[in-house]
Amino acid sequence: MSVLVYTENWDGSFKKLSCELISFAVKLAEEMQTDVAALSIGNVEAEELEKLGQYGVKRILTAQNGELSQFDPQTYAKAITQVADKEQASLIVMADNNTGKALAPRLSVRMKAAVASGVSHMPDTLSPFVIKTKTFSGNAFAVTELPTDVKILTIAQNSFDLKKNPAEVTVEDAGIDTSGLRPKAAVKEVEKQTDKLLLTDAEIVVSAGRGMKTPENWGPIEELASLLNGATACSRPVSDEGWRPHEEHTGQTGKIIAPNVYFAIGISGATQHLAGVSGSKYIIAINNDKEAPIFDAAQYGIVGDASRILPRLVDALKKAKSA
Amino acid sequence: MNILVCISHVPDTTTKIKFAENNTRLDTTGIQWVINPWDELSLTRALELKEKSGSGVQKVSVAHVGPSSAEPTIRKALAIGADDAYRVDVEALDSYQVAAQLAEIVKAGSFDMILCGIESSDYNGSNVGGMLAEFLDYVSVSGISHLDIEGGEILVTRELDGGREKLVVPSPFVGIVQKGIAKEPRIAAMRGIMMARKKPVHLVDATEAGPLTRVKEFEPPQPRPACKFVDPENPEQLVELLQNEAKVI
Ligand SMILES: Cc1cc2nc3c(=O)[nH]c(=O)nc-3n(C[C@H](O)[C@H](O)[C@H](O)COP(=O)(O)OP(=O)(O)OC[C@H]3O[C@@H](n4cnc5c(N)ncnc54)[C@H](O)[C@@H]3O)c2cc1C
Ligand SMILES: Nc1ncnc2c1ncn2[C@@H]1O[C@H](COP(=O)(O)O)[C@@H](O)[C@H]1O
User: Fold this and answer.
1) Which ligand 2 atom lies nearest to the CA of residue B63?
2) Closest ligand 1 atom, CA of A294?
3) What is the ipTM of this complex?
4) CA spacing 20 to 30 A to B54: which of A274, B1, B11, B84?
5) Using CB atoms and an 8 Å cut-off, which of residues 73-92 of chain A contact chain B?
6) Half-sphere exposure of A31 (CA within 13 A, CB side)
7) Residues A161, A213: one domain?
8) What's the whole-model pTM score?
């Protein structure tokens, strides 16, 4: 019995999300009175691996096999299963992001392990293992029992606080037998966004909707985002109209994000929009209609014309930052 | 080349979600059921490919796991343009059970491409496509925002956290689709609705594969505290609240 955390790296470095996974797993393993190991696939420098140790993991298993240099859910599921079996893992933890969503279901079938997706709470009970999962686009939780010997959890971003808990780490080779593990799909082209803060990574997101009237009015939205080290986002009609790039569209049919702070400016707060952002810790709404449904989801709100309020907000922030 | 599109049928997102029997079941009264938006888009793209000359797509089928109450959803898919449908006559209990049932349809048929949505807006949670691929030991690509067939090659674009990748995939494979796969879902025309009546819906018996999870009850999320309003003449106060009360900036 042990807990295995799959920590993904991005070009050799870990994101905050990987550290959240470790914090979560260390806490859970403590309750289960068992050990945690992290699995890292790909080339990561020792110094970067030790970062994970800051959050309490003592063993890190690494796999730098060439066959695994291309992310392929089919081969990765086989590789991770080998490690989980060897470790006798009873719990496998990964992120509820593109990678985790691609891997967890394959692992589930391979290991006959029940999955809880989008976990944002500690389990209700350990035996039987009962945990809340997000359902109906964030409109409810399903209190779900995972009765299988091995269980898989995918963890929603920004749900668990980082907890410093420095430990001495040992790094071992995961010992994966890669014979026969060759991806069958061939990558032809890769396009990476490296310069820009990703919407899915941002702690603060400044999002705007049709209430902005024209794409020329986005200046203060971008300024606000850059003052707050945040990312910009938008509602669907805004990206449909081509006012903003498609990557920025949040909601049921766009990106699902859970930042610390989500500014919704000139956004009505339709259920399909909220489905993508209801996991945000704080929602701040600026809208000239005091009946707009966005105010039901918001903690802070201003009823008024965004074109008048934004410049003053930008000024106030600049002042606060220089103070 | 034959394409199978897996469709789930979900409450329209604007319907209010309520629960019955001590929050153990979804209260289905008054729910407007629709094809899961992703599946509608996958079906649209599959039909576009069938119409594209030289794509080699001969047939587009749809599959659903669920009781007869989903018949209208299946007929709608046929009216939009699918050639035939499969329905496994069993209540869908979790993604593992659904994927196990779908795997039997795939094994008994001859499909080169199987499409699933990235997420159904009910309770399964982005799992069916990947599970189906593993049951079949097929290649899976998730997060597909573009799908094409050119010169006999299947080309997909996969969205990554921070970028995208273009891949050539072998067939058979399972594609898990997201935003971008088609612009607007196709709607059924009168002619399609008439033709749908004559198209076959193959009824499939369930295998014994059961669920791996059990939902004990549903819990509405904690209500958020009421919104605190800031005077529009004094937006500076918002900065002050975010700094000193919420402590988030
Ligand atoms: C199947 C389906 C899926 C969908 N998926 C998504 C999705 O993923 N994401 C998404 O966003 N939408 C989605 N939608 C669309 C959704 O229903 C709404 O239509 C959309 O979110 C509305 O965008 P909006 O709030 O920007 O625009 P509007 O609804 O037009 O709202 C504009 C708001 O701006 C306010 N306003 C106007 N002028 C000002 C001003 N000067 N200052 C301040 N406020 C002002 C108005 O009071 C209003 O509340 C989906 C719809 C369907 C049917
Ligand atoms: N009952 C079902 N019958 C057929 N396909 C389904 C069913 N449930 C889910 N799917 C497919 O799996 C995708 C992802 O659903 P889920 O894993 O439930 O989030 C959906 O978009 C469908 O393509």
Assistant:
1) 4
2) 49
3) 0.93
4) B84
5) 73-74, 77
6) 13
7) no
8) 0.93
